[in-house]
Specification:
about 270 residues; 8-stranded parallel β-sheet; NADP
Length: about 270
């Protein structure tokens, strides 16, 4: 099972809210659920998947290793705990959530540990998140580009990460865009609203379609059935080359996920 291009993000969703979001998401057609150890909702995501009418093997599940668990032994133990919470014997994709701040844990150590948990059958695929070019090059030197299923990074019309995206394309590494709607800011952009009107769509659908037409995976989150359905419908929207180029002019380097303590040295 390859990673579906359209996924459901669960960042900031807790308790019954995340259960309802995942259950509804699966009902309306989502087959890729993205969570993380630090989100504190793996158990609820696991419950929602278990309670859905869709078999676990038809749902692609991603989780991420938090920075406190990057040491070789801790990484495996933490993933085993995640699997218990998610009620599964393996996940489909395990990512390093952020590079170790100030290289407190050497990159080769946690990348090799990530390969080890894949070889042990705890995850089908491995990858990284929030890796700039310099650290992605180091990861490639350790495990090879072919081993890295994706690099999950913030990308939306206002932060297009072109230099990193171009490097990843050269290396054959897939890009997964998180915060694809820029915390809802896309809804207020004049250009996106105009393009949306031309397609009888929403600015959110336009932003998602723009990302997917570049080959990126997207993982927007929502708690409302109408929004979950509308986001998913963006996969059926096709933008013209002129519209794609126009949206490209919106880049202003507006990074929304940028905690000082985790800054990996952005490109």
């Amino acid at each position: 099972m390859r990673m579906p291009q359209f996924g459901l993000g669960t960042f900031r969703l807790k308790d019954q809210q995340v259960i309802d979001s995942v259950v509804t998401g699966v009902e309306v057609g989502y087959r890729h659920i993205d969570t993380a150890q630090i989100y504190g909702n793996e158990a609820e995501v696991g419950q929602a998947i278990a309670e859905s009418s869709v078999p676990r093997e038809q749902i692609y599940v991603t989780t991420k290793i938090w920075i406190e668990n990057l040491q070789r032994d801790a990484l495996r133990a933490s993933l085993e705990t995640s699997l218990q919470k998610l009620r599964t014997d393996k996940v489909d994709l395990t990512l390093i959530h952020w590079p170790s701040p100030k290289q407190a844990v050497p990159l080769p150590e946690y990348m090799e540990a990530l390969v080890a948990v894949r070889e042990a059958g705890l995850t089908r695929e491995i990858g990284v998140s929030n890796f700039p070019i310099a650290l992605l090059k180091q990861a490639i030197d350790v495990v090879g580009a072919e081993a890295i299923a994706t690099n999950q990074v913030e990308v939306h019309p206002f932060l297009q990460n072109r230099k990193l995206a171009a490097f990843m394309r050269e290396q054959g590494i897939h890009l997964t865009a998180y915060m694809p709607l820029a915390y809802g800011k896309v809804m207020d952009d004049i250009l996106l609203k105009r393009i949306a009107a031309d397609h009888q769509a929403s600015p959110a659908q336009v932003a998602l379609a723009w990302l997917m037409q570049q080959g990126y995976a997207v993982i927007p989150s929502s708690t409302k059935r109408a929004n979950l359905e509308a986001n998913l419908a963006a996969a059926r929207l096709t933008l013209t080359p002129a519209e794609m180029d126009a949206i490209a002019t919106l880049d202003r380097g507006e990074r929304l996920a940028n905690p000082d303590s985790l800054n990996p040295g952005w490109d």
